[in-house]
Amino acid sequence: MLVSEIDMITPSSLSECLMLLSKKGRIHRVIAGGTDATVRMKEGKWRPEVWINIKNLNELRYIEESDDCIHIGPLTTHTDIIHSPILQRKADVLVDAAREVGATQMQNMGTIGGNIGTASPAGDTLPALYVLGARLELTSMSNKRTLPIEEFIFGPGRTVLKENEMITKIIIKPQSPNEIGIFQKLGPRKAQSISIVNVAISLTMEQDLKCREGKIAFGSVAPTIIRARKCESMLPLGQLNDELIRNIAKIAWKEVMPITDGRATATYRRDMASALLERGLYRLMRRWNNQ
Amino acid sequence: MKSIQFVVNGKECTVLCPPAKPLLDVLREDLGLTASKECCGKGECGSCSVLINNEVVCSCLILTGQVENQKITTCEGVGLSPNLDVIQESFIAEGATQCGYCTPGIIVSAKAFLDGIDHVPSVGEIKTALGGNLCRCTGYTKIIKAVQTAASKKRSETETIG
Ligand SMILES: Cc1cc2nc3c(=O)[nH]c(=O)nc-3n(C[C@H](O)[C@H](O)[C@H](O)COP(=O)(O)OP(=O)(O)OC[C@H]3O[C@@H](n4cnc5c(N)ncnc54)[C@H](O)[C@@H]3O)c2cc1C
Ligand code: FES
Ligand code: FES
Description:
The structure holds 2 protein chains of 2 kinds.
Chain A: E1 7-9, H1 14-22, E2 28-31, H2 37-42, E3 50-53, E4 63-66, E5 69-72, H3 78-83, H4 85-90, H5 92-99, H6 104-109, H7 112-118, H8 125-131, E6 135-139, E7 144-148, H9 149-152, E8 153-155, E9 158-159, E10 166-172, E11 179-186, E12 197-205, E13 211-219, E14 226-227, H10 229-234, H11 242-255, H12 266-290
Chain B: E1 2-8, E2 11-17, H1 23-30, E3 49-52, E4 55-58, E5 71-73, H2 75-78, H3 86-94, H4 103-115, H5 123-129, H6 141-161
Helix pairs in contact in B: 3-6
The complex binds flavin-adenine dinucleotide and FE2/S2 (inorganic) cluster (2 copies).
């Protein structure tokens, strides 16, 4: 298939879009911001017969709070996330992560739905969504289902999304005032780089630097995002002081399962996973102390 | 082939092209607007930056079928000699351009950035805003200076008017 032969249909509503997705016949793929899709089309990896262009389906671009949940439309851009007062207050770790995606142009173009759809182990919003306990709503013409993001992604670029489905909503629990979160990323340079390792942390705090419970999710150190359960189980063991933070970081070194690739060696990734977690926890404690 | 309509630099236009053709190629080949440049072709360098509805994006990754009825601004639309924008004048005054390949993209990014703020930005703010634009010649110091100069000129202009 040549690029010049690829057709494009732009549905004007979600229901029209779902109808198009349910049609058999031409091979289709959804395109939103195109920051992954167009790159892969140019590389020759993705050459559908028709692009279903949802870029301007504004009914899927929103951030709302209702029923004790925050609802995010899949076409919400990284820039929308960064500027959202609701998310700044109640999902700081997601805002942190969106700030680390590419640079201004990519933040203006790229969407959260696209970041999830690509399901890259290095996708920056994903660890944040894991620690926020995100659930995804998947909709087809005839069905609607909601599942945790952990069950949606099962390998690099591999998801349970069916051909006739699309992501129609991302649902997260808002943080309470004693919950704090942070996202840390190591890339080859500050702007516009793919994560070598990234980590999202969310902690529920009590008095005196004591943490009741917490969630830690690493990216780029396994085929999918992983939760560091052993590290998490150590968080409530005492005051999060230098000693405990260092011990947790040591466990992270063992808990991640990175590979060597063109961007970094496995050992370097282990070292950096440990260092990023340590730095993240220190920064969170400093912030909590100053609050 | 599809007939696709959009507005470029304030003018309505209709092009007949494959809908998956990148906007950058349509701007350069079909519309003769050659300020936007192709360099990496994959979103990393910013030399193809244009504004769509006043937001800066990479035209090498936007498919033309996706911009139906949208408003696009290229560097030509920011200003053309002799009616240059204050940003362009500042780039000349500060010597912020050498080979010039990156310049149209940077002007467009700077335009979106300065239109969104009403103060003279710090070096850090400029670095974040222009992080998606690479320049292999200038070393950035003069680019950053030019953006600050443009911002202060804009401010003094609005103060005189106000
Ligand atoms: C230069 C550059 C730098 C980048 N830097 C980063 C970075 O630092 N961190 C990072 O995480 N990513 C980065 N990316 C990748 C990319 O920008 C993000 O993954 C972005 O969020 C993708 O969103 P999109 O809307 O452009 O997706 P698209 O490219 O439009 O789509 C991506 C995939 O998701 C599917 N999809 C999109 N929307 C939906 C939906 N609603 N339902 C179901 N499937 C859907 C598409 O079919 C496609 O398979 C970078 C990309 C480039 C080109
Ligand atoms: S040519 Fe578009 S970003 Fe490099
Ligand atoms: S002036 Fe040559 S690349 Fe910037």
